[in-house]
């Protein structure tokens, strides 16, 4: 299923979020509070996924647990609800749910996926992206620094095989998969040219069973 490599996840997401589709973006703040605060990151980051989705669909709804970040986004004109993705009850279902780089931050990813399934229409699609633990640059970092680079908010890793199993156990069936490889230094990432499994991250589309 993972036979194509893309540079920008929006290239795939875009065709599933345009009106009249109803769209939910979970984990939309994309902040690192321990480093510089939600507000600072939101205001300075021009390619924040939620901003790009809003440009494609003005009716976009966002969800995030970060109260400060939610407040900032709403003050900027976005429509974001402060809630926990594992337990939220929004009272509606969506055509498309985007979960970009969130599953690796969750304490109970299976519980979250089951809840997202309940917020998905019967013919809807869940779009999930996450870092690849086998990214070739991580090997370089282990050799140089003795350890891989891990975001301070990450609590787990997924690869296409384990994610596929988790999705199916949560009542979702993977239907499309893509490797994601932004432009990077060849010295650190050359292995991906031989084996795409060394790519930076990956994206999976799933539907309700």
The biggest beta sheet reads: 8 strands, mixed
What is the β-strand count? Answer: 8
CATH topology: Rossmann fold
How far from one another are the termini? 18 Å
Shape: globular
Helix content: 25-40%
In terms of DSSP E residues, the strand content is 15-25%
Word description of this protein:
This protein is α/β, with parallel strands linked by helices and 209 residues long. It has one domain: 3-Layer(aba) Sandwich (Rossmann fold). The chain contains nine helices and eight strands. Strands 1-7-8-6-5-2-3-4 form an eight-stranded mixed sheet, with helices on both faces. Strand 5, helix 5 and strand 6 form a beta-alpha-beta unit. The mean pLDDT is 90.
Topology diagram in text:
Elements: E1 2-6, H1 10-13, E2 23-26, H2 38-44, H3 49-56, E3 61-64, H4 67-75, E4 80-82, E5 94-100, H5 109-118, E6 120-131, H6 136-145, H7 160-169, E7 172-180, H8 186-189, H9 191-194, E8 201-208
Parallel strand pairs: 1-7, 2-3, 2-5, 3-4, 5-6
Antiparallel strand pairs: 6-8, 7-8
């Amino acid at each position: 299923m993972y036979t194509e490599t893309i540079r920008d996840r929006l290239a795939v997401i875009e065709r599933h979020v345009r009106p009249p589709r109803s769209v939910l973006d979970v984990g939309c703040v994309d902040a690192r509070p321990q480093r510089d605060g939600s507000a600072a990151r939101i205001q300075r980051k021009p390619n924040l996924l939620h901003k790009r989705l809003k440009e494609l669909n003005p009716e976009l709804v966002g969800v995030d647990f970060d109260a400060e970040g939610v407040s900032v986004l709403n003050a900027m004109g976005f429509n974001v609800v402060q809630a926990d993705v594992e337990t939220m009850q929004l009272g509606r279902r969506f055509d498309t749910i985007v979960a970009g780089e969130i599953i690796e931050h969750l304490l109970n990813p299976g519980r979250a996926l089951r809840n997202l399934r309940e917020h998905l229409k019967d013919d809807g699609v869940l779009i999930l992206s996450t870092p690849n633990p086998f990214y070739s640059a991580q090997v370089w970092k282990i050799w140089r620094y003795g350890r891989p680079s891990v975001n301070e908010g990450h609590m787990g890793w997924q690869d296409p095989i384990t994610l596929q199993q988790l999705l199916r156990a949560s009542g979702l069936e993977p239907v499309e998969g893509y490797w994601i490889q932004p432009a990077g230094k060849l010295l650190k990432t050359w292995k991906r040219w031989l084996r795409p499994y060394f790519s930076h991250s990956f994206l999976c589309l799933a539907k309700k069973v």
